[in-house]
Amino acid sequence: MPFLSKDLFEGLSNLEFQDVLVKTLLHSPPLEQFPPSPESRHRFWKWVVTFLETITKLYEEQEVDERIYEACLDSLATRSFYRSATFALQPPSPAYCTYFWHIRPENIQSESTLRTTTLLESRTLIEGGTTGFRTWRASLVFADWLRVNPDVVQNRRVLELGSGIGFLGLVVADLQLDANPGSYSLTMTDVHSEVLSRCRDNFQLSCNNMNRHSSLDFCLLDWFDALQDDSTADPNSVLNQILIKSDIIIGADLVYDTSVLPALSALFVKFFLNKNSVVKTTSRRCTPCIYIALTVRQEQTFSAFTECLGACLICFIRCIIKNHI
User: Most exposed residue of 11, 28, 76, 103, measured as fewest CB within 10 angstroms of its CB?
Assistant: First the structure.
C-alpha cells in the first residue's frame, strides 16, 4: 500500500488529516489503475483506523470519517476473497506500491507539489536469487533528502548504481523535470538483467509520466569491470562511456557485502579520473560528486567500506544514512 511522506500531514488538525487521506487515497488514479495487493491495502487501512481511533479518544476529538471505515471494511472483504481464491502456501506474487511525497513549492516550476511514484515490487525479501526486486529503506531516506535538496540532481547528468526496480531513479527523474530547462540525464544501472528490465517497465508505467524525460538510459553494469588494468582496459567500454557522460553518482544500499567493496571503490576512482580528463578537454565545469545512502547493518562492513575509500584516497563521500533505521 502507499508510502506517505510525513510532510503531507504536518500542521493539520485531525479533521484535516482525515480529509487529506480521503481525497489523496480513495480516488487516486495511480491506486485505481495500479492497485496494491489486498493484504497490503487492508493492513494500511487497519493501521489508519487504529491510529485515528486512538487520537480521537485521547484528545476527545471528532469521530473517524465514515469513508475511512468503509475503506477498511472494503479492504477486509477484498482480502478475504483473495485468500479464499489462492493457496496459503504459495509465495506472494509481486504487487504495485505507490509512494506519495511532496516537493517544496520554491523548488519547482509547476503548481502542484504532490507527487506519486508507482512500482511493481516483490513482496518477498529475495526473488530470483536477488534482493533487487524491492525498495529498501535507504532509498526512501535518500529520496526524502533529495526532495529538499533537488539541486543535487537538477541540471546534472546522474548515474545511479544498483538501481534495482527504480524508486530512487524515478524520484530523481521527477525532480529533474521540475527544474528549469537545462542539460540533464539519468542513467540507471544494475548487474541483474531481470531487475533492470523491471526497472525499465516501472519507468514506463503511464502514471509515472516518464515519457516527458528526454534523456533516460538503462544499462547493465558489473562493478568488477572497474578492476581491469587500465593499460589493457577498453577506453570505449560500457563502463568508461557511462562514467564519462556522468556528473554525479548516486546509490542506495550498495554496501551490503565486503566482497564487492574493492570493485565499488575502483569504480569510484575511475569516475574521478575520467572527470579530471573531461574537465581538462571540455568547457563543461561541474564538480564530480558521489552520494551514497546506506544502512549500517554490520559495523565491520561499513568499516571495510571506509577503509577501501581511504586506500583509494577518496575522502569526499557524503553518507546520508549511518545508523540502523
Answer: 11
What the block records as the C-alpha cell of 254 is: 550498495
DSSP letter, residue 22: I
- Cell 493539520 found at: 12
Q: Is 128 a residue whose pLDDT tops 60? A: yes
If one counts every other C-beta atom within 10 angstroms of the C-beta of residue 304, the result is: 17
pLDDT in tens, 239-262: 999 999 999 999 999 998 899 999
> Taking a C-beta distance cutoff of 8 angstroms, is the pair 161, 266 a contact?
no
Give residue-wise pLDDT tens across range 278-317.
544 444 557 888 999 988 888 899 889 888 888 876 655 5
Order of strands across the sheet that contains 289-293:
216-220, 185-190, 157-161, 248-252, 289-293, 317-319
Residue 137: other Cβ atoms inside 10 A: 14
Measured CA to CA, the distance from residue 171 to residue 166 in angstroms comes to 9
SS3 51: helix
